[in-house]
Amino acid sequence: MNAKKIIGIMLVSAILLSGCSSRTVQTESSLPETPQTAEKIVFTEEETVTEASSEETQGKFEFNPHVYSAQLAKTVPQEHWDALYSLCDALRAGETTFKCADEKAYKWVTDVTIMCCLFPAAGLQFNAESSDGSPAFENGTGKITYKTDIDEWKKREADFEAMIVDIINSTVEKDDTDFEKALKLYLYVAKNYTYEHEVVQWDNYVYKTFVKKTGQCINFAAVYAYLLMQVGVDALPCGTYDGLCHAWTYVTINGKGYHIDTTWALLDNYAGMEQVYLDYFMMSDAERNSDNCLVEDLTVDVLPGIWVKYTDVSYAATDNSYNIRTFSTFVSLDEENKILHYRTMEGEDKELRYDI
Length: 356
Prior knowledge:
Layout: H1 3-12, E1 39-43, E2 48-52, H2 70-73, H3 78-93, E3 97-99, H4 103-109, H5 112-118, E4 126-127, E5 137-138, E6 141-143, E7 145-146, H6 150-169, H7 178-192, E8 194-195, H8 207-212, E9 214-215, H9 217-230, E10 234-240, E11 246-253, E12 256-260, H10 285-290, E13 299-300, E14 329-334, E15 339-343, E16 349-353
């Protein structure tokens, strides 16, 4: 078993949990037939409120089956991306074969971790094998065998797409800047998801978190990254084994890297809190290290080798332009003037210009 597989199993078994109890894997339970309606975050002058919304209007986001990270593409070759998108298209159509350049690309795109993070509905829904005993990959063709009835799979996948579209269109707008998208989705996760303190018995750690709205650090890191990639923001789930074993999201905005930790932002973590802490939004390496989440041996789940230190690509976060710490909370967002209003723990109202 290669290192990638070992790490993937360890992740699914909750090795990267911040004080989280370990998890076991079992067959998934039945899921609701229709996706849950997302709560829309409405940015007012004084406070953030929520309202249900599932309207379909023109100019909205559509589901993107081909999510992409330019940061990941520095390490993952184009033929791997081509194979991934061919597989995603085949899965959406209920097909059992897809185009694939070579066996290395085949192994990467059919890896459980890759599917869970980059096409969550398909995680653990098929086997990387043919149905007739022929080679799983041959002559530029990859083969898969579904674990469930194809019609059931296609309904599951269509429901997932509808859920994702509802979430992003209820939370962000197409003309938002990447900073605004990242902040709004950070607030969305913080307000709508809860932390799972008990043993989590889920087999797909990303898809189930979207559906159940509960999980642990590894779950939220991947969920947040996937939502960001859906709206065109470069993001990847990452974590560390040094110091406090924990997972979060590495985000690239305006060409600069940042660490964003939705787990520690959850309102569910803080009894009686009504506003979201901004301490864990757009963090630098130094700030991440100060929380005992040491980034020297940073891991990225979807890297072929997991460990960043074995690549020539920098996953550094050195910019402190958005440093809002010491338990300051979100108040409002003035998108016209590009001003973030926040409140310190002493009750002092302050602002940050984010068009820098």
